[in-house]
Design brief:
This protein is an alpha+beta fold. The chain contains six helices and nine strands. The chain has a six-stranded antiparallel β-barrel, surrounded by four helices. A hairpin with a 7-residue loop joins β1 and β2. α1 packs parallel to α6. The protein is globular and about 40 Å long. The chain starts with a helix and ends in an 11-residue tail after the last helix.
Length: 214
């Protein structure tokens, strides 16, 4: 889990330089976020697996993370390029619950994910899809660029073993994400830093003096 938090901080640092107005608008309304990272080689249009974390937003606060993996991924990018990281903006509590399920969830069935708008000229509404349900928007950091991406196929699965090792607890993903007092991050974790940076992203602030890792 510590390595997933570290990588998520690097991802958010990249998104803070410069601040993304589209993300500010989406995060202000979202129920949560999921941040995924490629396993081994850079994630491409189709890949075998990626690991990540899900965090639930509770007003101006964020839950502890729950570990999740995504297998048999099919990613549609706005541009044809390699991608290292994916961030999903989850529109409603039910979407967070889908990602916290302890059973495999098939993308396209329980969760529909579309490419997110990349500038403020697009009107964004997380709760007004054509079918009347919530929208989950997805972005990729692709060779240093920030692009919209749709996840067309894949199976999402929680990682209870990772959660148990990190929290030294048998708490379920539902407990971790929806009942924050259930678990506590271990001393020395960088989780408070990740929470702070997500709030900076939500407020549209610049994070100064962060080196580009790409």
């Amino acid at each position: 889990m510590d390595s997933l938090i570290d990588q998520s901080i690097k991802t958010v640092d990249h998104l803070l330089n410069p601040p993304r107005s589209c993300l500010k608008a989406l995060l202000a309304e979202c129920a949560g976020v999921a941040i995924f990272h490629s396993v081994g080689a850079a994630l491409i249009v189709s890949a075998s697996a990626a690991h990540g974390i899900v965090l639930k937003r509770h007003g101006a606060e964020w839950s502890p993370p729950s570990a999740v993996s995504m297998a048999n991924i099919g990613v549609g990018l706005a541009i044809g390029a390699k991608t290292s990281d994916i961030i999903m903006i989850l529109g409603m509590d039910q979407d967070v619950r889908v990602l916290s399920s302890q059973q495999g969830i098939e993308i396209g069935g329980n969760l529909s994910i579309k490419a997110g708008p990349v500038d403020a000229t697009h009107e964004v509404d997380l709760n007004a899809s054509a079918g009347g349900g919530a929208i989950t928007y997805c972005y990729a950091i692709s060779e240093g660029a920030f692009v919209g991406a749709s996840v067309e196929t894949g199976v999402l699965t929680s990682r209870p073993g990772v959660n148990a090792d990190f929290y030294n607890s048998g708490a379920t993903p539902e407990d971790i994400l929806f009942h924050m007092c259930t678990v506590k991050a271990p001393e020395g974790s960088r989780l408070p830093e990740l929470h702070e940076k997500l709030n900076l992203l939500m407020e549209g602030h610049l994070q100064p003096h962060v080196a580009n890792r790409y």
